[in-house]
Amino acid sequence: MTADDTFGRLNDDDYPAYAMGRAAEMLGTTQGFLRAIGEARLITPLRSVGGHRRYSRYQLRIAARARELVDHGTPIEAACRIVILEDQLEEAQRINTEYRRAAGPATPEAAA
Prior knowledge:
6 helices; three-stranded antiparallel sheet
């Protein structure tokens, strides 16, 4: 791996750049919270060669949303399910937008 490859990954939302301690610090939560949302299968951190959990920026955004819900009184299992459903909805909406864009503008003849 070259230095250019390493620097390029810094902008990759899916690159597991953060160790558990740093991730918890960034989220203002505990490592136990990160383990709990992992057990609830909200996120699955990658593991380093030494077996340590590593988190991506995308996973940290998902964890932050779960933490927000938990902080407002939602049980952790329910918060994880809500975040999963929100993520699925966002993906479905993105796909629908792509399909509409690819189909082009609707014409009155097409509707008839």
